[in-house]
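Give me C-alpha cells for this 390-residue protein.
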Amino acid sequence: MSLAETRTEKLEGWNRPPVVEPDGQGELLEVAMGPHHPSTHGVFRMDVTLDGERIVRLKPVFGYLHRNHEKLGEGQTYLASMPYTDRLDYFCSLTNNWAYALAVEKLAGLEVPERAQYLRVILAELTRIQNHACAVGFLIQDMGASGTPLMYAFKVREKILDLFEQLTGSRMMCNYMRFGGCRVDASAAWLDATRKLVAGLPQFVDEFEALLTTNEILMARCQGIGVLRPELAVNAGVTGPMLRASGVNYDIRKVDHYGIYDRFNFRVPLGDHWDVYDRFMIRLLEVRQSIRILEQALKEIPGGPVMDAKAKIRGFRPKPGEAYGRIEAPKGELGFYLISDGGPNPYRYRVRPPSLINLTILEDMCLGQNVADVVLILGSVDIVLGEVDR
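Here you go.
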C-alpha cells in the first residue's frame, strides 16, 4: 500500500475515542511530561493518562511564566507598554508591536503615513517567514531528527534578524512601532539589503521543501496524526496556520484588510487532511506567499514621513472609549483590547494571544494517538510560552 493510500485509510478511519475513566485496576498510567521537557519549548507541563501507549486523557498545565503583563499595562503609560509587547511572542516582537499600535491608533484616531504602512507590512512578513521556518525546524527536531533542519531554518532567520538589528537596534526585542507610525525610517541601503535577501528566499524554500516534504519518516510520522476537524477548530476559536490547515479559509489580512494588505496579491493556502503534515506544509506555503507580498511591497514603497504629525509622545491621553486591534500574527489572531478613561494609562488592557487559544484543543488532537505522537502534535501547534502565560 502506498503512503498516500495509507494516509487516506488513517484519516477515514479516525474518530475521537471516548475518554476512558480509571477503573482502579492499575491499567492506566499517569505521566507528567514537563514542566521541563525538551519538547515543550518552555516551562509547560502535560499531564497524560495512558492505556498502554495510547492517550486517553491529556491536561495542559501552564502559568509557570506568568508575568502579570496585562495588569502592568494598566499601571503605566500607553507608550511604556510597547517594549513589554516584545516579550509576548519573543520570536515575533514586531508583529506584537503592530497589534498593540493598531489598537491604540483606533482608540486615539491616529492615521499612519503610507511609508510607515509599507514598512510595517515588510517587517511583519519577514517576521512570519522566520517564525514559520523555525516552527518547521523545531517540529522536525521534536521528531528526533538531528539539528540539520533547524540549523537550516536558523540560517535564514539570522539573516532576517540582522536586518531587524540594522533598522531597530535590536535583533529580537525591537520596540519599533509607534502610535501613528514607526520609530525611525528605513534607509535606502537597508531596503536594498532587504531586496537582496528576499530575492534569495525562493531558493531557500525550494531546498527546504526538497529536504523535508517527501521524507518517508516525516510522512509516516505526520500523516493522519493529530487530526483537527474544521468544526472543532472554528468552535474552539483556533486561528492562524492551525485553522487554515483544517481547511478553513480565514486570514485576517484578507478579512480586515488592516494596514494596506488589500493592495497586495497573495493566496491563502488551505489544508485538506487536517493533520500534522498539513500544518507543516501550510507554514511552508505561507512562506512563499509572504515572499510574494514582500516583493510587491519593496517595489512599491513610497517616500515620505513615517510618523503621523498629530501623534505626540508626551501628554498622550486618548479620549474615553474602547478599541480592539487585531492582526494576522504568525501564530494566529493577536489582538489587544483597550479601554480609555481619558487618563495617561489604559483603564483596561487585555491581550488575545493565539498560542493560548490554539493550545486549548491539544487534548482533542491527542486522544487515541500514541504517546510518541504527543510531542509532534504539540510541535505542530507552534506555541511560545511567553504569550501563553503573559
